[in-house]
From TrEMBL:
The keyword Thylakoid does not apply. It holds the Pfam family ABC_tran. Residues 18-57 form the ABC transporter domain. InterPro entries: ABC_transporter-like_ATP-bd, ABC_Transporter_VariousFunc, P-loop_NTPase. This is ATP-binding cassette domain-containing protein.
Length: 57
């Protein structure tokens, strides 16, 4: 069973895009997001939490 699952999620805001994001996090696993400033870490978390709506997926 997955605690988090995204399938082919797309999101765009102005010049920023997330394209075809898919991944699963099994229940009980700890996952982190790392990357440079402005690459979409916070946006991805907001999509997971349903704070913003994806264009697709």
């Amino acid at each position: 069973m997955n605690a988090i699952e995204l399938n082919a999620v797309n999101y765009q805001h102005k010049e920023f895009k997330l394209n075809d994001i898919s991944f699963e996090v099994p229940q009980g696993f700890v996952t982190g997001f790392i990357g440079a400033n402005g690459v979409g870490k916070t946006t991805l978390i907001r999509l997971i939490m349903d704070l913003i709506e994806p264009e697709q997926g």
